[in-house]
Amino acid sequence: MRAFCLRYEMRVHNKKIIGEPSLYLVLSEEYGAGRSVMSIAEEAVAGGIDILQMREKHKSREDLLRLGSALGELCRKNKVTFIVNDDPLLAAELDADGVHMGQKDLQRCPLDEVRRIIGIDRIIGLSTHSLEQFQRANTLDVDYLAFGPIFPTQTKDYSIGTADIRETLRVALKPVVFIGGVNTANLGILLKEGAASMALIRDIMQADDVASRTAWYKSQLAKGGINA
Ligand code: 3NM
């Protein structure tokens, strides 16, 4: 019993917090313009990225384990939060900090099952795509919510715009990460609406200088809406 309690305390203590503001890079090899995910990840870490997510939809389990191990090690060394997309079993096996689930993933693996698999010491993130969905997700057992796609993005065939950002932030019980089509030109719009944390793929992965681009986003998030 005592051993259990000690372990319990340790696990709670070890859970990473999604701080705000956070800059969150979603990594998919297919959007890396031919560059390796690892080299992009290393540059993003050098630029000060807060969270890295491995989102690979077309890799074998063996390749996912190989890439995930390398990304996990990079993140651990640099105190970056490491999230695995879609797959709680893989997240646990890689000892990642957490798992990110889409709405459709929950049909395959309900949230209580996700929590059972990854335990209380890991983060669960959940995508939401409308204010109604956000409000429902807000009270669930998840540690952060993603809201988007805010701007048009090649990844989705719709975008929801900026109109509901303020309301999501007003009601949010947990950190919110805004995603979808974020770029250097429209970041200021998000900041003006009060958004603190953003998740991106292309505008960081496809930057000529990933470290500088990451550092630029970080500096803008640190200033917040004041100078936007
Ligand atoms: N999820 P980019 S939008 C992976 O709204 C993803 O849930 C979204 O890529 C959501 O920054 C998105 O290149 C794509 O637009 C983000």
Automatic annotation (TrEMBL):
The keyword Transport does not apply. It catalyses: 2-[(2R,5Z)-2-carboxy-4-methylthiazol-5(2H)-ylidene]ethyl phosphate + 4-amino-2-methyl-5-(diphosphooxymethyl)pyrimidine + 2 H(+) = thiamine phosphate + CO2 + diphosphate; 4-methyl-5-(2-phosphooxyethyl)-thiazole + 4-amino-2-methyl-5-(diphosphooxymethyl)pyrimidine + H(+) = thiamine phosphate + diphosphate; 2-(2-carboxy-4-methylthiazol-5-yl)ethyl phosphate + 4-amino-2-methyl-5-(diphosphooxymethyl)pyrimidine + 2 H(+) = thiamine phosphate + CO2 + diphosphate. Residues 23-204 form the Thiamine phosphate synthase/TenI domain. Binds 1 Mg(2+) ion per subunit. One of its GO terms (cellular component) is cytoplasm. CDD domains: TMP_TenI. It is an enzyme of class 2 (transferase). 2-[(2R,5Z)-2-carboxy-4-methylthiazol-5(2H)-ylidene]ethyl phosphate binds at residues 153-155, 181. Keywords: Magnesium, Metal-binding, Thiamine biosynthesis, Transferase. It comes from the Bacteria. Its EC number is 2.5.1.3. InterPro entries: Aldolase_TIM, ThiamineP_synth_sf, ThiamineP_synth_TenI, TMP_synthase. Pathway: Cofactor biosynthesis; thiamine diphosphate biosynthesis; thiamine phosphate from 4-amino-2-methyl-5-diphosphomethylpyrimidine and 4-methyl-5-(2-phosphoethyl)-thiazole: step 1/1. Pfam families: TMP-TENI. Mg(2+) binds at residues 86, 105. One of its GO terms (molecular function) is magnesium ion binding. Its cofactor is Mg(2+). The keyword Thylakoid does not apply. One of its GO terms (biological process) is thiamine biosynthetic process. Belongs to the thiamine-phosphate synthase family. Condenses 4-methyl-5-(beta-hydroxyethyl)thiazole monophosphate (THZ-P) and 2-methyl-4-amino-5-hydroxymethyl pyrimidine pyrophosphate (HMP-PP) to form thiamine monophosphate (TMP). PANTHER family: THIAMINE-PHOSPHATE PYROPHOSPHORYLASE, THIAMINE-PHOSPHATE SYNTHASE. This is Thiamine-phosphate synthase. It comes from Syntrophus aciditrophicus (strain SB). The gene is thiE.
